[in-house]
Design brief:
Number of helices of chain A: 7
Keywords (chains A, B): DNA-binding, Transcription, Transcription regulation
Largest sheet of chain A: 3 strands, antiparallel
Strand order of the largest sheet of chain A: 1-3-2
Shape of chain A: elongated
Structural class of chain A: mainly alpha
Domain HTH marR-type (chains A, B): 22-79
CATH superfamily of the largest domain in chain A: Winged helix-like DNA-binding domain superfamily/Winged helix DNA-binding domain
Oligomer: homodimer
Strand content of chain A: 5-15%
Pfam families (chains A, B): MarR_2
Protein name (chains A, B): HTH-type transcriptional regulator
Largest interface: A-B, 60 and 59 residues
Family (chains A, B): Belongs to the GbsR family.
CATH architecture of the largest domain in chain A: Orthogonal Bundle
DNA sequence: TTAAACTTTCAAAACTTTTTGAAAGTTTAA
DNA sequence: TTAAACTTTCAAAAAGTTTTGAAAGTTTAA
């Protein structure tokens, strides 16, 4: 396969993966494009390469900055803004985990905590089943949360070494 | 909070979480409803409680069975089909991880493997950047895959005990 | 100041996904 | 057989999401 085709394929795949993971397709594609660009790109260049509108490009770039995945850069003597992506895959994974934890896990845990407080008669099957599911899921969510927290604070090397060895 | 309100809230939250995680809202809501039902429910009951159409209910129930999250049950002497959810949270997490691994991770790894094979001149920054990102992401994806595989094969208890201790 | 170069906004349009509901299909009991 | 009870299908409609592009806003250099 030739480099240009490979690049296109990479952008396409990353976009698809993104849309399965709550990051929208264009956002993931712009990210992919910046990931494989040795130099920072302008809005104009991104619009052209991915054939997207100015408005879309601007919004997407802003979102990506919000996710901590890309940064603005200014070249001395130039008015234009350049964008570049952090190329460190471990950082990317960490950022995504961090954001999703904040955006999705935290609100759910808040609701579950509230729902765990509901009281009732344990001999009432309606209550008992509700209560068991809610408490179990709450425990699971808290466990995941704690795990993420620890992972985010941990150092990079254990990851590349393979966490999985620990479960053997 | 009163039990009925709590149930509604649980179904709503689970639905929201589902839609952020690639499982559609109705599917997650039906699952939530079955999770907190002490007894199996019929299509009719589910339609009524969640105010969804017959077609939608039928499709959703089929999908949930496909994900391994619920099962059909027959009551002796009755024509109707009843549905019930596995209430074991660890099983639920395992099933979801298993399915997503198969549906999403595997195809990506396949593409990345292909893209890793692309050759070029390492002094060409275009190639070098592309290659580094692709290989790094490939390593990450494989690592996640391996971790999932091990987790899925592992026993339940280490999870409830808290994996996170291992990262301390 | 001014105007050129650039960025941001947002209502409307395009596209995608989900849901509906009526019709077709299947199973069972009599 | 038949018909009632139930399940499945799928084209069209509704709902939800993303994208466009023109207009408004901002910054900078002169």
């Amino acid at each position: 396969m030739e480099l240009e085709e490979a690049k296109r394929k990479f952008i396409e795949s990353w976009g698809k993966l993104g849309s399965e993971w709550g990051i929208n397709r264009t956002m993931a594609q712009v990210h992919a494009l910046l990931l494989i660009s040795p130099d920072p790109l302008t809005t104009e260049e991104i619009m052209e390469t991915l054939r997207i509108s100015r408005g879309n490009a601007n919004m997407t770039l802003r979102d990506l900055i919000g996710w901590g995945l890309i940064e603005k850069q200014h070249k001395p003597g130039e008015r234009k803004e350049y964008f570049f992506a952090d190329k460190d895959v471990w950082n990317i994974a960490k950022q995504v985990a961090k954001e999703r934890r904040k955006r999705e896990l935290e609100p759910v845990i808040k609701v579950l905590d509230e729902l765990s407080k509901v009281t009732g008669d344990d001999r009432d099957p309606e209550f008992a089943t509700f209560n068991k599911s809610v408490t179990d899921i709450n425990k699971l969510a808290k466990n995941v949360d704690k795990t993420l927290e620890t992972m985010l604070g941990a150092e990079e090397n254990w990851f590349w070494g393979g966490i999985f060895k620990m479960f053997k």
